[in-house]
Amino acid sequence: MSRVAQDLNGHHSNGDSPAGAASSAMIRRILPSPRKPHVCVVGAGVAGMRCAQVLGAKGFIVTLLEARNRTGGRMHQSMLGGHPLDHGPNWIHGVNQNPILDLAKEIGATTMTAPESAPSIYDPSGQLLSPEECKESSSLMWGIIEEAFEYSNKNSDAIPQDQSLFDFFKIKLQEKDVPAPLAERVLQACRSWGDYIGGSIEKQSLKFFWLEETIDGENLFLASTYQSILDRITKDTYANANVELSTEVVSIESREPTASDDDISRPSRIHITTALGDRRSFDEIIMTAPLGWLKHRGETCFSPPLPPRLRAAIGNISYGRLEKVYLTFRAAFWLPSPNSNSNGSSNNTPFFTQWLAPTYTPHHHPLEC
Fold first, then answer.
1. What is the C-alpha separation between 346 and 336, in angstroms, rounded?
2. Concatenated DSSP letters for 239-290?
3. Average pLDDT, stretch 179-188?
4. How far, in Å, CA of 206 to CA of 167, rounded?
5. Which among 319, 124, 354 has a CA at the least distance from the CA of 203?
6. Is the pLDDT assigned to residue 264 strictly greater than 50?
7. Residue 27: what are its φ and ψ, rounded to 5°?
8. Hey, which residues does 368 pair with through a beta bridge?
């Protein structure tokens, strides 16, 4: 079981869990007076909205501030040719005890399972590999990925911090005595993992690779888009919090508690300022702003500054960049022809296509669709 799954299994725990203990500590810190604590949540993405829901349901006064004019963060849709399209997530990764899948089932969302077929792979010169070569390369690459997850999970404490996932690939290919041409294709193909983690595979620490493991179970494509799920999450959020859109937070000022803080008239400890100059006070603030915002504003927004360890982490963590391009065709050429003798099932067109880092362009980034 992945550690993400273990966390989900314990998400109903009380103060005995780390999350529960943190919540209890917050309550103890701000509940000496008879008034209800007022908590500010910054960022109305899914994390911020869920946080606001939980706190509001527990009796906190919650104000949720969002810089954009909408909720959802990266969960966003638009229309193209009369069809809704997801700008952000459109997969449900892992179905075992996945709360997103629970929501999808509850609202009747349409999902589909990606066919279990090898992708089409184009080599660095732009030539399509044979189906046998594609299957062999893909199976070997994902097999080593699975081995890396298991190894990182079991041996994280002993793995040197500078040992990379790419190092693990090279070791495993050598241990398996993989022929040189196939090994080279796998090493080229595995670089696509960098698209998921926001940095090159040479920088992906094997020691902490277990953090990338998702929930157990198959991956489902959300054919009906995330719109209905987002609508449901947003509705529940508005029922438990005061949501203010188009409200950008530009500074957060806190102070250390004093001996008088247990007094009923004590002032709130945290002050925020918005882009319009509005200054407000709260008992606690929870930041759910994305990493990109923290990189851009983290050094100047907080007073006093964030601890050095947090600032270093924000500066060192890469930000994933998966770009989407939607193409429309006059006909679905990948489906069986109505006049064919097909029984109605899909043909053998691969669901995914991967281009290894090309040598025929100035930019050598791998690509997958």
1. 6
2. HHSEEE-S--EEEEEE----GGGGSTTPPPSEEEEETT--EEEESEEEE---
3. 94
4. 8
5. 319
6. no
7. -60, -45
8. 354
